[in-house]
Amino acid sequence: MRVAILSIGDELLTGEVTDTNASHIAGRIYDCGARVFRHLTVPDDEEAIAQALTELAAASDAVIVTGGLGPTPDDYTAQAAARAAGVELELSQTALDHLAEFEKRIARPLHPANRRQALFPHGSRLIPNPLGTACGFVIALEQAELFFLPGVPYEMERMLADTVLPELSKRLPAPWRRITLKVFGIPEAAIAEQLQGAFPADAPVQLAYCVKYPEIHVILRAAAENARPLEQAAAEVRRRLARYLFAEDDDTMDEVLARLFRESGLTLALAESCTGGMIAARITAMAGSSAYFLEGNVTYSNAAKSRMIAVPPELIERHGAVSAEVARAMAEGTRKTCGSDLALSVTGIAGPDGGTPDKPVGTVYVALADAASCRVERCNFQGDRARVRSITCFTALNWLREHLLTRHGAAVPE
Questions:
Q1: What's the mean per-residue pLDDT of the chain?
Q2: What range(s) does the MoaB/Mog domain occupy (predicted)?
Q3: Coil, strand or helix at 135
Q4: Is the bond preceding 357 in cis, omega lying within 30 degrees of 0?
């Protein structure tokens, strides 16, 4: 099946919005057993949309269209679809009732402009939208079926899963299987080197790499009938990358860490300087984190380090706020002041200013204290302020993961 994607919106072409919809659709289509062979992006222009629909319909079996189904004057998708199909727009009472019911649920009167969202090309089939105002629709054009979905990602994803993929799956071969192994702490080139010869060259398994900073995803794919070779290949990749592997498939670092804390029964406190609360934000994003996360201190200034977590001022004066000594004092002081089992601290120079020859921008110290000891290490990260803060946060989370596995579960492989 030849599947195409059409993304609609000026904001996509100006760079104001990143088109995450196309990526999501392509991945879901691939999992169903097909590949997207073409992706176009066009502005909010009726003629441009109609031309793109005609062009893609002539070369495709299915076209998935996102965007332009809102109530504002620059939402042209429905009328462009009618133009391409050579039909008129007509009011759908079903869509109008849906709009009224949606507005009633949020205690807001239906605005007259929203009636535009109940106009669809004659002969189209509606796609229900359980999460928003804009119903989607399906039309036939040339030999293709065209599926129109809103541009709001969480609405689009639900409608794609509930309606579009089940319809397409009826005409697709057996779906491909995919295993995604997520690793951290090793460069992409080193991963490729370690995986040389991991499975036979003639094995019916595809190997790919995807960098999602600061993670690297190792992706294995195979047709459904090749499930056993896929699992064998994945087992060997897991073995070779065990030291760096932190999650698989839809699992995330945050979810893995939350499970480990729940299983261990340990508690945690944080002292953050250069990350400004980013680590605490990720930990508390997980439901149930109150069972193990006690507190987070953003000790950005030197005075705050001394006042809040008992770092001696003379230690900062002697070694500097960005130092192994201060990182250790931050972790140990935090653990003592709040009574947690574990305390983690980070202090560093995120930039763009503040670096010195001895401690350039990207210098970060991480410390993790428990009742028995305190581990402290210097990290030298590269990149701008956002990247330094991001990888510092991820490194801290990974330290916690490794500690919980090593001290309270299966040891991290050497």
A1: 95
A2: 4-171
A3: coil
A4: no
